[in-house]
Amino acid sequence: MQANAELEPSVHIRELKKDRVNFVLENVDLAFANSLRRVMMADLPTVAIDTVEVVSNTTVLPDEFIAHRLGMIPLVSANCDEAIRETRECTCDTACEYCAIPLSLNVACHDSRTLDITSNHLQYDPSVFNPQQESGAEGEELTKRVDNFGHPVGKNDPSLPPVLIAKIRKGQELKVRCLAKRGLAKEHAKWSPCSAVAFEYDPHNKLRHTTYWYETDPRAEWPLSDNAREEEPPRDDEPFDFNAKPQRFYFEVETDGSLGPQEVVMKVSKHPSASCHCAESLEFINM
Amino acid sequence: MNAPNRSELFVLEDGEKAVEIIEDTKIPNAATIKVVKQDHTLANMLRSQLLATPSVLFAGYKVPHPLQPYFILKIQTDGTITPADVLQQACSKLIGTLTALEAKFKREFSFKDVEGAVVSEDPYGGPSTGGPTWAGGRDYLDF
Ligand SMILES: [Zn+2]
C-alpha cells in the first residue's frame, strides 16, 4: 500500500544548539511523525516543584500565585527515568530522597531597594523532609543522578539570567519549603521538557491538507516558510495528485533546559507511549 | 471540582488490563480492541501502521470521550491472519521503526557534537540588570 512502508526512517539534523534541535524526518508516515511530536511534548518525565509549604509570605503575591510560579521553574532532569521514581510508586509515606527533591527558599529584603527573588535563591535543602519518616525501598536512583539534579536550570551559570519569582521591597520576605517530584506533562504542563515543538510538512500545500483564506491571491497573501526552500514548488499546470502522501517532516524542538534537546529526541524511541506501551500491548495480547 | 485526577489518564489501576480484545460476532475476521490509559499518540500510530499491512481490510480508532482515558481500535482482516496477530505484527513493526530511528538519531548527533557543545551567542537574551535602587528618602515602612 505504501511505497515507503518498508524503508527505514531517515533523519537529517539541520541545527543543534544548547536548547534546541532542528531536524528533517523522512520515510515515515504522518501519524508516526505526529506521535513523535506528541511524545516529546507530553510523555517524557521531568522533575518540577509539586508541593509548596509557605512558611512566610509577605510579598504582594498570594501564596497560590507563588506556588504556581515555583512549579513552572525548569529543574535539571537529566536521566530522569532512572534518577528518580514516581512518588506514587514509592513505598515511603509522603516523600523521600528516592522520589522527591527537597528545595527551600528564604529571602528577605532589608534595604531600601527592590529585590528580585529568583530561581537562584532556591537551595537544595534536605531538612524539608520530615526526619521521622522512613525512606522508600532502597534503589539505584541516587547513583544515577548528575550533581545538580533537581536544581533550577542555569543556577550558578552567569550566562543564564535566572527565573524571576517575585519582587520584594524593604521589610518583605518569602520563606517556602518545596518538594520537586517526577511527573509527566499529561498531568501538568510544568513537567514538559519542551517549551515549543514546531512541526511542518508539505510547505507548498500540494496535498491540500489546508485551505487558505484569501482576498485575491493566496500565493501573494500567504508567505512560504523557510522549509519551502527544501521542496520543489508546484508547477501551475500540475494536476492534483490525490494519492500523494506527506514525505518530509520538519521539526524544531526547543526545550526549557530541564532536558537537553538531544536527550528529548533520544528518549522518544526508548520511552513511554511510543515503544514501551506497544511492547506492553504485545505482552498482553500474547497471554 | 469533579474532574478526575489527571494521573488517571495514564496510570493503570491495580489489576487493570492494558489491552482487552472483543471478537466481533457479526463481522468475519473482525475484532474490537480496547486499550486503556492510552490516547491518540499510540492509537493513531497503530491505526496507520495497520492500514499499511496488506491483509488488513479495515482499521480505525476512536476515543469515545475525552474524560475517559481509553481508545477503541477496530480491525478487520482478509482472513489470512487474525486481528490480534496483525495488531501484534503492527506493534513489532513500530518498535522496529523506532529502534531504527534511534540509531539514525544517534549517528546524526555524533556528527553534531562538536558544533553543539559550544553555543557562541547567548540563546536566552542578555543578562538581567538588578532592581533599581530607590532614591533615598523614607517611605511608610520607615515609620
Ligand atoms: Zn519516596
UniProtKB/TrEMBL annotation, chain A:
Pfam family, one: RNA_pol_L
Gene3D superfamilies: DNA-directed RNA polymerase, insert domain, RNA polymerase, RBP11-like subunit
Molecular functions per Gene Ontology: DNA binding; DNA-directed RNA polymerase activity; protein dimerization activity
SMART domains per UniProt: RPOLD
Domain DNA-directed RNA polymerase RpoA/D/Rpb3-type: 20-282
GO biological process, one term: transcription by RNA polymerase II
Keywords per UniProt: DNA-directed RNA polymerase, Transcription
Domain of life: Eukaryota
Cellular component GO terms held in the UniProt record: RNA polymerase II, core complex
InterPro entries reported for this sequence: DNA-dir_RNA_pol_30-40kDasu_CS, DNA-dir_RNA_pol_insert, DNA-dir_RNA_pol_RpoA/D/Rpb3, RBP11-like, RNAP_Rpo3/Rpb3/RPAC1, RNApol_insert_sf, Rpo3/RPB3_RNA_Pol_subunit
Keyword Transcription assigned: yes
HAMAP family tied to this protein: RNApol_arch_Rpo3
Family listed: Belongs to the archaeal Rpo3/eukaryotic RPB3 RNA polymerase subunit family.
The name this protein goes by in its record: Insert subdomain of RNA polymerase alpha subunit
Automatic annotation (TrEMBL), chain B:
Subcellular location: Nucleus
Family matches, as InterPro entries: RBP11 (IPR037685), RBP11-like (IPR036603), RBP11-like_dimer (IPR009025), Rpo11-like (IPR022905)
Pfam families registered for this protein in UniProt: RNA_pol_L_2
UniProt key word Transmembrane: no
Keywords recorded for this protein, A-Z: DNA-directed RNA polymerase, Nucleus, Transcription
Source superkingdom: Eukaryota
A GO cellular component annotation in the UniProt record: RNA polymerase II, core complex
Keyword Transcription found: yes
Primary localisation category: nucleus
GO MF annotation list: DNA-directed RNA polymerase activity; protein dimerization activity
Domain (DNA-directed RNA polymerase RBP11-like dimerisation): residue spans on this chain: 30-102
Any GO BP annotation: transcription by RNA polymerase II
Family: Belongs to the archaeal Rpo11/eukaryotic RPB11/RPC19 RNA polymerase subunit family.
Name this polypeptide is given: RBP11-like subunits of RNA polymerase
